[in-house]
């Protein structure tokens, strides 16, 4: 009998309490009256996971039985956020757990706060991966997420005198109740060494990689439960360990130092998440991480997930490896090595299969964000893989020269190998050559990929290129984060929207219903009070409970233009101070910022310091009577997002057009009834198209206008000189008004804006301030604003990651849902 102790059906308060106390006593070894908050949280988490176990086991059993096509989502990042709430929702246990804990005198909400979120990602790309696996489970699609179990996730941000300080994220300090380690299934991965020619017994010659060191990958499995289905997929994150046997051998040869070194080498690999999300640093350890998790994942799928006797020629029927950006692209030569070197396949057979199993998602348009690996580094770490890449390139260039005879310039541009400034592998080219599909993450982004960044490839293989607009999971970002609005929506249209977000369109007529608008407003107001409470408790920040909440939350990067929003705030402050703007006419507003800067990105850190400096000055200025507040809570993360987004009125999506691939925060805000002020960039384009011009504040240059201005020569100095408000705002910063009279402190930020202003913040300033004036006027008409807010919700169903997954299935994977019976 394979039935776990708690069957899925057995949902009663009594059985839940029994399980919970068992976990407390036998799992934690404590009595209820002596249990710490962590004990209770752990016992609760383990109780909840029991209820999901039947579905997980069933899913695994069926995977063997059905041999259905599986999506393997390969991603260096999964930014999961807290697990308890999601698992309570999918197991349908929230009500029962609350009542059970109530009876025991425990508050469920207190225990929720104990969980430290797994922050195993930087931002958009990592969070997208988490939304996608949630949606695939909900849609009953077989999927395995493969990634890295970083011991330290994205750093914990603190502010010291307004400057960012990074602290280690010790998310595992108290252990995680959600992971299932399987050291007995460890996979071995090689690094370094050399390649030899060998001839085996049958006289067949092959290349044999002899690594200098080996590392074990220990899989940690996590449940990925679907909502409203009993499917529970798996997220498998790899943790690096030194192999005992290897060390023993070295020890016996007297190499104590060597053995310890290898131990350190091995365990460093999954130690820490790299916090850069836009300019890859080309660090050796990063490449080790990439190869480590990819090699573990491929070996795992070929040897453990597929049946022993599986004919790998049929691999394309069983799997698509979806490459989340170029970070896992080393999987391409790794699969070739598995087939050619380890299984003796011909190059042609192996390449034929390889080209049918990989698909590549690109997440950027910034040239400096495209990963390249110097061949010196790659060849030292993965000598055989470099050979394979060279061979792939050789054959590819041959094909190119056939197609474009005499066009050596084109051949050089398209080559997988760059020659300058150093010889290096262009990972995006490798992914595009090997992948059977390449997709961008929003309509505009995919267009620009096709017509600009990868235009040569799109010309050669037009059918390879496609778009899948990103989405977000409505479970976490609506149902869980905004329970009150969810209740109202469900009362109006039933609860079908949670699994089919297009049903939100049925709310449209209610935008005209005054009573519905009032209730919708009341909920937003209550969410603001709750957000204010959280800010007070979490950060000691005091904000008005009823001011407009104007939020810009995303990684700090020049292209996203946090400086543009800051210039608007400074300009308001300056105009109020000068008497140009009467204080009574200004709507009370809280400007919320949340942003981490990559530790090595000096200018980004200076921008953070400037935002904090402006914030302190404004917040301390009694003459403003509290009408303007700047709230910049440190360490913005998924947990805080779930509190902020439901409270927001205005969503700032103000990147320079043509730079933000998609954005996904924009979708979360719209779905929670915030209006967007934004440029015609990324998924903003699609949001505006769907919600309507009247319900969106568009400003700034369009992408073609940006390109024109770039071509004709852009002078930020000239813009500064010609706009008195802009000049006054910048001069106020330069005067030392926000730095106790120090005129040098914020100089680098000002110099970057007046010097090059690479992302044309000054060029869009006037248009932005005008749009903010429209915001201000519209907000005063609260009935009109509420109508627009409701229409944003009603018309944003498209941005469910469930829809994204259906698009991936149709356009790329050819995978299908596999329903299982309860
Ligand atoms: C690469 C190499 C070495 C170290 C780190 C990296 C790296 C890590 C994360 C590079 C980029 C990373 O993330 C980029 C990212 O988050 N892109 C965003 O992806 C979102 C989902 O598609 C989009 O919505 C955003 O527009 C895009 O900026």
UniProtKB/TrEMBL annotation:
InterPro entries: Glycg_phsphrylas, Glyco_trans_35, Pyridoxal_P_attach_site. It comes from the Bacteria. It catalyses: [(1->4)-alpha-D-glucosyl](n) + phosphate = [(1->4)-alpha-D-glucosyl](n-1) + alpha-D-glucose 1-phosphate. Its cofactor is pyridoxal 5'-phosphate. Keywords: Carbohydrate metabolism, Glycosyltransferase, Pyridoxal phosphate, Transferase. One of its GO terms (molecular function) is pyridoxal phosphate binding. GO terms for cellular component: cytoplasm. The modification N6-(pyridoxal phosphate)lysine is found at residue 668. Its EC number is 2.4.1.1. It is an enzyme of class 2 (transferase). It holds the Pfam family Phosphorylase. GO terms for biological process: glycogen catabolic process. The keyword Transferase applies. Coiled coil: none annotated. Allosteric enzyme that catalyzes the rate-limiting step in glycogen catabolism, the phosphorolytic cleavage of glycogen to produce glucose-1-phosphate, and plays a central role in maintaining cellular and organismal glucose homeostasis. Phosphorylase is an important allosteric enzyme in carbohydrate metabolism. Enzymes from different sources differ in their regulatory mechanisms and in their natural substrates. However, all known phosphorylases share catalytic and structural properties. NCBIfam families: P_ylase. Belongs to the glycogen phosphorylase family. This is Alpha-1,4 glucan phosphorylase.
